[in-house]
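tmp note - Sulfite exporter TauE/SafE family protein
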Amino acid sequence: MDAPALFAAGAATGLLAGVTTCAAVQLGLLTGAIRDTERPSGPVAAFLTARLGAHTCLGAVLGMVGGAVQPGPRVRGALLALAAVALLLFALDLLGVRPVRRLLPRHGDTCHAPAAGAASAEVDRPSCHAAGSPGADGSAPSTRRPGSGSRWRPAALGAATVLLPCGLTLSAELMAVASRSPVGGAAVMAGFVMGGAPVFGLVGVALGRLRGRLTPLVAVALLAVAGWTLLSGLRLGGWMPAGGGGDTAAADASAVHVDASGRQIVTIWALDRGYRPAVVAARAGVPTVLVLRTADTRGHTRAFTIPSRDVDIVLPVNGDTRVDLGAPRAGRLNFVCASGHYPGSITFR
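out:
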């Protein structure tokens, strides 16, 4: 495919990512970018510009050197966990939790002298005090310049989105790798970001302008996204505790069989919204092959991860993909889609 075709393919994938749950974590970062601003259009533009630049550079690198630069599942899981912490801080900041509000840099920490005749109440706001004097709560005076710490925040958060890929992002990155060209790879990832830019832009401006009326709702939504993101990171890193629900798939006779050579074959379907069966029981100590089967599958599940083995596999839209598991010892082998959303496991006993 030439660069225009790759750009178009990336844009279609980006548009789909912008209107699905792929956008949840990155919209949380966007909320942090527009915090404490009355004019959200500038921070939103900086966020989207940095996001475009970071993804375009990544695409060029992927097209040039291939998937070797991709972080493994445990690294991505740790990044998702860190993103969850950031989202939690943003949510608590919106809810007015004082320790968090002190921790995060704010726009315009010092006050300007009031105009003649201005209401004295404007000077007496708890968050506003003269430079060099103690705050209303007795805290040390702020020495930040107006806007210090927040000028580059939207761009930094926009660039950071490259570290939080979802399943559809991974699909676009696969196209960049397959292009075998820095120009083609850059075109794919630039198209991906541009495809989702209208959704990000509209949501960012809307949140910025309606923040006062929607603050509690946005904060609760960010808390929910933070929990969901943390859960995804724990799954992706392989840090979820084993247990619960385990052996119900043993009754599914079609999931496990032994072929003529004596190998144990475990067949799992990768569907758009999960794996079927998601929980399988198999024999331990037997040479085992995992068959991942797709049929017009285009969702997150095409990016298949086995965290404990640091394995990432991108499945075709249609067909069977075989993974040699060796002769597993007794225990549980967890798997998940590469964005941490859809988990499953094989219990060997």
